[in-house]
Structures are given as C-alpha cells and as structure tokens.
Amino acid sequence: MTIARDLGIAIVTGQREPGTILPSEVELAERLHVSRSAIREALRILTAKGLVDSRPKAGTRVRERNEWHLLDPLLLAWMFEGEPPRKFVHSLFQLRMIVEPAAAELAAISRSAQQLSRMGHALEEMAQHGLTSDQGQRADQQFHAIILEATGNELLVSLAASISAAVRWTTFFKYRSMRQFSDPMPQHRLLFEAIANADPAAARQATIELVRQAQLDTEAALKVSGAARRI
Fold it and tell me: Which domains does the chain have, with CATH numbers?
C-alpha cells in the first residue's frame, strides 16, 4: 500500500501528469528495492481508482483527470496528503454545499433515536479529543456520515464514505498547514441541536455555515502551504 500511496500522491498532486508513462515494473522494483509482485499490486490499486492504464508493450500511462475516481476515499486522502489543486478544493466544497444542507434537512425529519445517540457520541468524542487529533477527526468523519445515513435515502447514503472522507482530509490538511484556525465545534453543536429538535430549516442553515467556514479555513491553509513551499 505504501508504494501505491506514494505513486498515487505523485499522480493526483500533479508530479506525474496525465499522459506520462511510468517506469517499467523492473525499473520501479529496482528503484524502490521491492519485488515485482509488490509493484504489480500497487499498479492494480491505481488502476482500480482510474489513475493509470497498463497495456502490453505500451507500458503504464497516467490517465486523464476526468477518468479518475475523484470521490474515492483513498484518492481523497492522497490528494490532501500532498497539496491539492485549488480548483479541486473549490469543486469539493461546491459538492458539499449542494449535498450536505439538503441531507441535514432530511436527517432532521427522518433520524432515529439511535442515530441521534450516535451523532451525540461522535460530538462528545470530537470535543474530548479535539479535531487536531486522529481520534477527533475520525469522530468528525463519523458525525457527518451518520447525518447522511439518517436521511434514509440510499443514494445519499452511498455518498457517505466520500463526503465523510472529504470532511476528514480537509480537516487534516487545515490543521497540518495552520496554527490558528476557527473553532468548528460551536457550529457542529448547533447542527446537532437542530437535528435533535427536528428543525430542518435550522439544520440546513447550520450546515451551510459549517461548510462555508470549513471552505474558508481550507483555502487559507492552501495559501499558507503554497507560501511555505515557495520559500
């Protein structure tokens, strides 16, 4: 997985551009001091995510960006372990702004007592561990996934892994790049209270404010990261 991760990060962050032919299996194995079977497994993972295409005699080529599985949770992780393109970040938050406020509205109407309890527990974990920690970020990821689950809409639920991964990895990137940032916990609590009170309008508005602030923070982190890279 480490080989796939390193190659994946190089591709999604633009170090290896679409159309580029990767080194052969033999060359990669020698360069990385691993077996050819390990290289083949890494390429299989990248192929499954739409990043590369391997053909006999033609080699392994990086595919065009529009062929990538951009909402794959692992691909999102690779994107934010490097420095994601600003256009991609903008598109990701556009998607969140389209999906999550509507999902919160539905969740406020449809959530079960068990789902509300799980949301509350995730919120407690976030507060206890803090969003700079791995545990806190996982709890944040779970909180957002449960909201999508609570809609009862199977198509929205199918987006849960992607949306919650986007939440986690933008948070990871933000805290890795910046020391000062806004506290998202009050807005999370407002969202939880709106869903608990079965208030769809308040749930929608709380989500809009939460996603908007997350976008502003992530864009600020991109500026900091870019400035540091240029020094």
Answer: 2-67 (1.10.10.10), 85-230 (1.20.120.530)
